[in-house]
Each structure stands twice: as C-alpha cells, then as structure tokens.
C-alpha cells in the first residue's frame, strides 16, 4: 500500500513539474522598432484603386487625434514606435517606417520606402521608386510605385498607376494597381492584377 501511495505521489509531483514546460502552439514573432517611424491608413485594395481623402476611421473625432510632422533630414526620414499618426511632405531619398499600428500620410517623391512591422497604414500622393513591405496586416494606398516587394502576410497595397515590377513572398497579400509589368510571386492566396 505504501508503494502505491508513493507511486501516486510521484506521478502528481512529476505532472506538476512538467505542466510549466508546455510549448506554445506557434512561434511568436517580436518586432523591435528602431527610433523614428511613420505611417498612415489605407482602404482595402479594390479593382479600381482610389486614394482615401483622410486617414483611418478610429471612431474618435479627427480633431482629437494629432498628427506629428516628420522631417526629411539629409535625404532620410524615419518613423518608429507604436500607435502614432505622422505626416511627411516633400521629396526624400529614403523613408523607413518601423513599428506597429503607425499611420503615415506621405506626399512627394520618395526613392526607397521600407515598412517593417504590423498593422500600419500609409496613404498619400507619393511617387515611390522602390517600396519594401515586411510584416503583417499593413495597408498602403500610394499614388505611384515603380518596384514593390512584399514579404509577409495579409498586406494590402493600392497604387493608382501601373506597377512595373512586383515581388511577393508570403500569403494572402492583395495588390491593386492599374496593371502589373513583371511579377515574381511565391506563397498562396496572393492576388494582384493578372493573377
């Protein structure tokens, strides 16, 4: 009888010790933003791309949400952090948007725009030579993009003009443009003109 009680006690202790060792169902991704970043919201991609007149509808009055101006210094502009509204006007050689839940209104000519993070929104009348989107659930509505690379999931990109070059590595991304020149796409559920 003592052996049986000891066996049950040992099993209970072993189960208690192992309960804290259970793994998570999926790997967790952590994004650490770099200093300074920008972004703005965009509508879902449609077959006829249009740019929104204003930022995302947050349910709060627009006067209650302030927009922080972003300067392009020495050809570089960076917006980083979480949950902020920013605006960049004028030409800039390189724009980096790093963080989550950012909103950026951007106008002017941009050499390279890089978006790293999740749930950020970029809108405006910008003319972007090269755009790289890395992350999930981002939306961009930009007037013109010449070269677009998407690495991630569930991103929505809208351009009002033809998109000469498109590269997608990910799943369930949506690109709306007047047309696409060349496309290199890997992953499933991606939609773009001509797909």
From TrEMBL:
Residues 30-66 are annotated as: Disordered. The keyword Signal applies. PROSITE patterns: PROKAR_LIPOPROTEIN (PS51257). Residues 33-54 have a biased composition (Low complexity). Residues 1-21 form the signal peptide. It comes from the Bacteria. Keywords: Signal. This is DUF3060 domain-containing protein.
